[in-house]
Amino acid sequence: MMSSIGSLLILSVTTFFGFGIANNYEKRPKYLREWKYVLSVMETEIIHGHSSIEHVCAKISTQKIRLSSFFASIKETLLGERNFSLVWEKALSTHETSFYLQEEDLEILKQLGQVLGKYSIREHQKHFSLTQHHLEEQYQQAVKETEQYRKMARGLGVLSGCLIVLLLI
Questions:
Q1: Considering Cα of 133, then 108, then 129, then 127, what sign does the dihedral take?
Q2: Pick from 29, 37, 142, 164: most CB atoms within 10 A?
Q3: Do the Cβ atoms of 25 and 145 come closer than 8 Å?
Q4: Which phi and psi (to 5°) does residue 10 adopt?
Q5: What is the C-alpha separation between 45 and 59, in angstroms, rounded?
Q6: How far apart are CA 162 and CA 84, in angstroms?
């Protein structure tokens, strides 16, 4: 009786662990999709609304999205610092672990931060378009990886539990 309860407990824990890892794989595409949305809002506000970057960051920081804390930190830091690219990069490095993004994704966002506020509206439009294109490629890759690794992580969670139970019997 005790061994079957222990076996069930081990199997449950490893299965739960496998599903937790699978859940982490699902977060990257969600964040990339949200970044694409935020960048389209920024592009609309800056290009068509002729809003300042400070105003755009303040507006995005009030929205109910996962990235609002990132833009809130930019808004607060911009009060004392005038170099936007420095503020953008610092905020990215501060929040990078909570974004579940890979190094390539962060590099794309860092490159955008280096040009925001420095060029004409036409140049901004080109940079937003290029960044959106790169993020779309990263998003498609993330979706493929998620489908592949999510199933594997779940399966490994269950199978590792079965293996441990078999070894203990």
A1: negative
A2: 142
A3: yes
A4: -60, -45
A5: 10
A6: 53
Q: Measured in whole angstroms, how far is the alpha carbon of residue 14 from the centre of its chain?
A: 26
Q: Which residues contact 25 (CB under 8 A, 6 or more apart)?
A: 145, 146, 149, 150, 153
Identify whether the C-beta of residue 157 lies closer than 8 Å to the C-beta of residue 18.
yes
Residue type at 131 in one-letter notation: T
pLDDT interval class at 5 (50, 70, 90): confident
Query: What is the predicted pLDDT for the residue at 49?
Result: 85
Give the position of tokens 């992580």.
153
Q: Which two tokens stand for residue 16?
A: 């739960």
Q: Go through 116-142 and write b for each residue having 16 or more CB atoms within 10 A of its CB, e for each that does not.
A: bbeeeeeebeebbeebbebbeebbebb
SS (H, E, C) 15-41: HHHHHHHHHHHHHHHHHHHHHHHHHHH
The model's pTM is: 0.82
